[in-house]
Write a structure and sequence with these properties.
202 residues; alpha+beta; four-stranded antiparallel β-sheet; 7 helices; 15% strand
Length: 202
């Protein structure tokens, strides 16, 4: 499989370092046990008031091909080109209100749903799988088809599957994209020490 561990200045956990958003998936199915494991990891994310605002729809092509196809058809054309090989798609949604405090807006819901999603991504890595979150999809279409209440905000779709064994069989464009180095802005441009825009240092 293609691996591109993060090149960090300080040591980080191996699972975090190995997580990356590849696009070269095999056609191989994912087991229901693996799916359950990923959503169980998401289930145990922290949340404000333990309200657990996340909702995930899971589409498994090998469990319900018609539903998977309906979700796939909501993706933008660019994403469809490579997502067609991913056996599982998910949609992360956020409850905009506290379920435990009726009528009260939950402005932390996106943050908490993001943490649940990250748990899912990292558990996938632990299972030898690869995930790729996507913003390119038709929100109105997917909300209508799957009857998602207006109260819930639609966030990212996520493709999940087995990464290809090597880049040798990929076309030139895909191979170059998959093998391109991972990059990040400098740590100090995003993390500040005691005051705004003062770069954090060791």
């Amino acid at each position: 499989m293609i691996e591109k561990p993060a090149k960090t200045n300080s040591p980080i956990n191996d699972i975090i370092a190995r997580r990356w958003s590849g696009r070269a998936f095999k056609h191989d199915a994912i087991t229901r046990e693996q799916i359950t494991s990923m959503v169980e990891a998401a289930h145990w994310a922290p949340s404000c008031f333990n309200d657990q605002p996340w909702r995930f729809i899971v589409w498994d092509r090998n469990h319900d091909a018609d539903a998977w196809q309906q979700a796939f058809d909501c993706l933008g054309e660019g994403n469809q080109e490579w997502v067609k090989h991913a056996p599982v798609l998910l949609l992360a949604c956020n409850d905009t209100e506290f379920s435990s405090r009726p009528g009260r807006v939950n402005r932390w819901g996106q943050h908490d749903t993001g943490m649940a999603s990250q748990n899912l991504h990292l558990q996938a890595v632990a299972l030898g799988l690869m995930t790729h979150p996507m913003a390119g999809y038709d929100q109105d279409k997917i909300r209508t088809i799957f009857r998602i209440p207006e109260r819930y905000e639609l966030l990212a779709m996520i493709a999940v599957g087995h990464p290809v064994d090597s880049a040798d069989d990929l076309d030139t464009e895909t191979r170059e994209r998959e093998l391109a180095p991972r990059v990040r802005e400098s740590l100090g441009s995003r993390f500040f020490d005691s005051a705004w825009d003062k770069p954090v240092k060791n």
